[in-house]
Specification:
alpha/beta, 4 domains, five-stranded parallel β-sheet, about 10% strand, extended, binds adenosine-5'-triphosphate, binds zinc ion
Length: about 500
Amino acid sequence: MPHIEIIIGIIAAILIFLVFEGVDVMPVIFLGSILAAFYYVAGKRSGSKTFAGVAKRSGEEPLISFDDIGGQDIAKGELCEALEFIKDFERIKSLGIRPLKGILLNGPPGTGKTLLAKAAAQFTESAFLAASGSEFVEMYVGVGAQRVRQLFKQAANTARRDNKKSAVIFIDEIEVLGGKRGQNSGHLEYDQTLNELLVQMDGISANDTIRILVIGATNRVDILDPALLRPGRFDRQVKVDLPDKKGRLKILELHTRNKPVAEEVVLNDVANDTFGFSGAHLESVANEAAILAFREKSNVITAQHLRSAVEKVIMGEKLDRIPSSEERKRIAIHEIGHALLSECTQPGSVASVNVVPRGNALGYVRQTQQDDKYLYTVDFIKGKMAIAVAGAIAEETFLGARSTGAANDFKQAADLAKQIVFGGMSELGIVSPEDVPKELLHKTITGIINEVESQVKKLINNKKALFTQLVDLVMSRECLSGNEFRDAIGTSVQVF
Ligand SMILES: Nc1ncnc2c1ncn2[C@@H]1O[C@H](COP(=O)(O)OP(=O)(O)OP(=O)(O)O)[C@@H](O)[C@H]1O
Ligand SMILES: [Zn+2]
């Protein structure tokens, strides 16, 4: 829209010219004033912005910043750190650092991977292009590869057109085109497409005038062709998990910020009731609640609308796997078992305790990075065994029986016991694996495990009240940092 002052100036000049020429300009002025009045009123109504900034961007995607994405703090942090390499390109180049070419976002559907890629483009002031892996799969050989070439070309062109120095290419469902080569039932097309993607990524150089960053998204890193994960391709991986309670609250706040929510509504309660929901599910909850309010001719969204919406999303989406409350309690007990023993045997070792789904697990304890040790003592190994078996022992103590969730833990404990035996630290003295009869080995390992188990049982039994408190705490909060966990324990107890 050219400046309105210039237009008025030109019209005035024409009118003066006509007056000098002896033309009757009164009807023109009259009509002009009516038009101007219209223009003014219309401008006011639409917030006058319509005529300047917003219209210019119509048709383009709205800008998304990291603040528009709820939760995902770790993913955002890791992503931003990687993006500094794109932002500070000149310095990176002068230091001779290999340019960052690809970032892989890995996580379940609807957790905001597309949003993160958009925010990354905005953060680095890059042009943004999105594609999905399935778009490249065509009947005709070579078409997919050609599309990949086009995409890269288009990215550079778009950036140039928009006066940007860089472009982000987002490829969703990258496993469709980047699956392991030779395994797609011998389908040549996938292979050529993937090869082309590798060629294009290898072609990205520090001397390019337009810097290109490829962000891929997948839920199946395990089936990706290893060539994609090699240095110089997608060598950064960012895990995007389902949101925890704090994250869910933030996402709900974001998606209700432009909706009339009744004062009685406590979004924290909704966050409580939506364990296992993804960001996309929560967006659905907010939307469904508004639809319910509309149907009931209510002007505001009430707590009841939100509760019904949660039910509707659970029923409608057949959410993958929402654990029941008993199941969650069991998980909390199991994880507190691991965590408590971890603090008792290696004080300061818990980094976080989580009762949120991640991958196939429904809860997990993260330990702080321990220095690599080259020499282990028996007590140290037994301590690690105690941590491993504590999940199952805790379940047994509080719920009367163990669950199948502990199979891995027992394998780990048995492996550690073997280390004790073959390290010559058991009652068998120094032995070599070939010399020990199977039954004797089995008996010795069982003996060590039993000893550790009874010690763990004793400790948990002595701390039942504390244990229950910790379980309640982690169930209400879902995630506890190491320090929060240690504060809740108070003075720790040393076992081994
Ligand atoms: N962390 C979040 N914060 C706010 N909104 C979110 C978040 N995660 C998801 N959403 C909502 O869900 C919608 C879908 O998210 P998005 O497309 O980014 O997920 P995705 O991980 O890319 O999923 P998919 O793998 O299925 O493509 C978004 O448009 C947004 O409304
Ligand atoms: Zn476990």
